[in-house]
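Practice problem: predict the structure.
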Amino acid sequence: MAGGPMRLKITHRTEYRYDFPIQYGLQRLKLMPNGGACQSVQSWSLNIEGAREEVRFTDQFGNDTRLVSMEGEPHIVSVEAAGEVLTHNKAGVTGAHQGFAPLWLFERQTPLTEAGEGIRDLAASISGGSDIERLHRLMNVIGERVVYTAGVTDAATTAEAALTLKSGVCQDHAHIFISAARLLGFPARYVSGYLMMDTATEQAASHAWAEAHVKSLGWVAFDAANGISPDERYVRLATGRDYRDAAPVSGIRIGQAAEQLAVRITVEQ
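Answer:
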């Protein structure tokens, strides 16, 4: 799987259509990738139409964050992030901890990762071997137990609920991994980003995976949905304790307008 560096070209377009003028809406965008051990950003732009950027800041996890507001007309709001990123295969090792959030914060469960009986049993079944071996085993067991199925879970589904359902999407695989890894004593975090797929250039959603902090190596990435440590086909966008911290686009809206959302992502070499 190990190859040389890859230059990935990404376009991520999110379009909202409303049937009435919007009283008020606020979107939080985490759509600007940072450079690091596994990637260097060659070029990147963020174009917003129908909304106004109110503030930009780096959050406690080191993510470039923009808040944009929308109100009244027009009925269409579009956000397009696009650029090129040079990626390297580091066998999932993304390096030393950085950012304002202390490592111990990633040892604590959140409402989305709170462990129930299922995850406690899962974590208890992972024993013996080095830290890395245990984490790889955890990733593989989750991949075997939880079948990738779109539409059965949503953004509010907890790790325990997804494990009980035995199905979900990459977000659920990541939350289950994070929850169990924390029980095993590892700080763990959620990563949102992009994956260049072998089968399709165009995708309907961004990708997500998890990272665990191993004393000798720093942060190491695990994609339980695909059963591998992320390689040069992956681009990291944002990190946090769970999906809520790292979601590329999230927001609130006041008023009666019904929302139609269209997302189009292309990732190509």
